[in-house]
């Protein structure tokens, strides 16, 4: 997969994309990341990328020309080379659809992603009309710019690609992939500051351990994110388990 990030602050991506799992994936040619400096496409001698909003109001609005031309600089070479790539152009935006595990999985199916980092009060609406396929928000809060949102989108999407994460099994078991939060994890030592790990994990009975982990995952989700349970695939016995937990919680309150 090729990932292009269009940003006013390319230096922000040097650490996150050079280190850890993403950095290793780049070195192994599993993904290619191209950070595009939007300032290079700025208007006039001073490379202007923003202007005051028509109709008045506070703040500045990102101009259409630099962003549209930056996107076209990325897509132009591919268009000349042959048929269009399976490509998605994304704008980070507070009004976009909420990013989650399923959206990351959806984006991982594309051959190429172009992520535009929004800024200031917003971007000229014509940018969305001309080059943007999707607008995405990573949460109901405001950031100083779209760079952090772009990092989250790229990281969560890239790790869905084959070979980026070492174990395919770990992807299947982690939070949200099954619609549930993950079960508690433990490692050595078996006793630490008077706290023991659950005996079941020392039993060697893999079927029982799997059952315990599934139950703990359901209980954790019911306690911390009950809103997720409606989307999870639960058996009748598991639904009864959730009901008992909810009833006991009501009695405690």
Structural class: alpha/beta
**Strand residues, percent:** 15-25%
- Poorly predicted regions: none
Indicate the mean pLDDT: 90
Largest sheet: 5 strands, parallel
Order of helices and strands: EHHEEEHEHEHEHHEEHH
Tell me, what's the shape?
elongated
Helical amount: 25-40%
Radius of gyration: 23 Å
- The strand order across the widest sheet is 2-1-6-5-7
Q: What is the structure about, briefly put?
A:
This protein has 253 residues and is an alpha/beta fold. It contains 9 helices and 9 strands.
Give short descriptive properties of this protein.
alpha/beta; two-stranded antiparallel sheet; 5-stranded parallel sheet; 253 residues; 39% helix; 16% strand
Describe this structure in words.
The chain is an alpha/beta fold. The protein is built from 9 helices and 9 strands. It has helices spanning 14-18, 20-27, 64-81, 101-107, 125-130, 147-158, 168-173, 206-224, 236-252; strands spanning 2-7, 32-37, 50-51, 61-62, 87-98, 112-116, 134-137, 191-192, 195-196. The strands form 3 sheets. A 5-stranded parallel β-sheet has the order 2-1-6-5-7, sandwiched between helices. It has a two-stranded antiparallel ribbon with strand order 3-4. Strand 5 (87-98), helix 4 and strand 6 (112-116) form a beta-alpha-beta unit. The radius of gyration is 23 Å and the shape is elongated.
Task: Write the topology of this structure.
Layout: E1 2-7, H1 14-18, H2 20-27, E2 32-37, E3 50-51, E4 61-62, H3 64-81, E5 87-98, H4 101-107, E6 112-116, H5 125-130, E7 134-137, H6 147-158, H7 168-173, E8 191-192, E9 195-196, H8 206-224, H9 236-252
Parallel strand pairs: 1-2, 1-6, 5-6, 5-7
Antiparallel strand pairs: 3-4, 8-9
Helix pairs in contact: 4-6, 8-9
């Amino acid at each position: 997969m090729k990932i292009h990030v269009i940003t006013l602050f390319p230096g922000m991506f040097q650490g996150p994309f050079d280190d850890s799992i993403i950095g290793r994936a780049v070195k192994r040619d599993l993904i290619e990341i191209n950070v595009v400096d939007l300032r290079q496409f700025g208007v006039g001698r001073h490379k202007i990328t923003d202007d005051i909003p028509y109709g008045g109001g506070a703040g500045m609005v990102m101009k259409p020309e630099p962003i549209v031309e930056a996107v076209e600089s990325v897509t132009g070479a591919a268009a000349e080379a042959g048929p269009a790539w399976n490509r998605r152009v994304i704008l980070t935006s507070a009004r976009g659809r909420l990013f989650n595990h399923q959206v990351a999985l959806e984006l991982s199916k594309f051959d190429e992603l172009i992520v535009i980092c929004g800024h200031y009060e917003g971007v000229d609406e014509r940018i969305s009309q001309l080059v943007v396929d999707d607008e995405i928000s990573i949460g109901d809060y405001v950031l100083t710019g779209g760079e952090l949102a772009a990092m989250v989108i790229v990281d969560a999407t890239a790790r869905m690609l084959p070979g980026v994460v070492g174990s395919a099994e770990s992807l299947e078991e982690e939070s949200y992939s099954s619609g549930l939060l993950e079960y508690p994890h433990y490692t050595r030592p078996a006793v630490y500051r008077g706290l023991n790990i659950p005996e079941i994990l020392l039993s060697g009975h893999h079927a029982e351990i799997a059952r315990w982990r599934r139950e703990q995952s359901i209980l954790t989700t019911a306690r911390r994110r009950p809103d997720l349970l409606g989307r999870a695939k639960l058996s009748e016995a598991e639904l009864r388990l959730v009901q008992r937990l909810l009833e006991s919680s009501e009695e405690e309150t």
